[in-house]
Amino acid sequence: MQGWILPPPAEPTKSASTFALERRAKVRWLVAQGLLKSARIKRALLKVRREDFIPRAYRDYAYQEVPLPLPGEQATISCPHSYPLFYEPLGLDAGHRFLEIGTGSGYGSAVAREVVGSGGLVVSIEIDPVTHAFAKANLEKAGYRDVVLVLGDGGLGYAENSPYDRIAVTAACDEIPPPLIAQLKIGGRLIAPKREGDRQNLVLIEKQAHGVARRIICEVLYVSLRGTYGART
Ligand code: SAH
Question: Which residues are near ligand 1 (CB < 6 Å)?
């Protein structure tokens, strides 16, 4: 992806115990950076084996802070720090109905599934059929059989399971797709990378009875949203 330097593809060499050490070190680093505070998100990041959501040629780089390519036209698994970066300001928690736009590898859905627990629900929409199939296989292999995976245009949301407590858009948009705001509960939150000029800002939105409150979290760099509300290039 533009703006990031991709490590070279390589045969995987690392053992499960090496990955487990790297995973724990990554979580310690995220806490030290002030990015990770919630006990539930921390537990989820310690549990989900990120290496199992990455194509074989990049598996050894699972815990490096770089987005890695996925099968499909324009898909990447986001850097490890992206997940607490999104889920902490969202306040993702037990019992939430959560909608993700851009399933990618399925890793973000797996982490969210752990956070929302048995009383919650995770729905994830992917527009690319090849990427969708990759995520589905990864999630099934990892034992996540109750994540609702939808192949379609996430800009339109997924009304069947709405309203949602929390929504995360993991591709950059020019405007927050209005159907997503419509499918959010009052008091619910949505987070999305939004293109503003030649930058992208991670924007947090809270839906109120009359309108929405917005806050910019930081600058980010994500692949563009496609579909009806796709980013203009
Ligand atoms: N959350 C992912 C990272 C996603 S990268 C992970 O954890 O791995 C962004 C993804 O959004 C890509 O897979 C891309 O194909 C998908 N995407 C882009 N536009 C979309 C749209 N309109 N609806 C659904 N998915 C979309």
Answer: 72, 74-78, 101-102, 104-105, 107-108, 125-128, 131, 153-155, 170-171, 223, 225-227
- For the chain, residues with pLDDT lower than 70 are 1-3, 233
pLDDT value at residue 233 = 66
Query: Which pairs from 8-12 meet CB under 8 Å and 24+ separation?
Result: 9/57, 9/58, 10/57, 10/58, 10/60, 11/56, 11/57, 12/56, 12/59, 12/60
Q: How far is the CA of 170 from the centre of ligand 1 (A)?
A: 6
Output the pLDDT for position 231. Answer: 72
pTM here is: 0.97
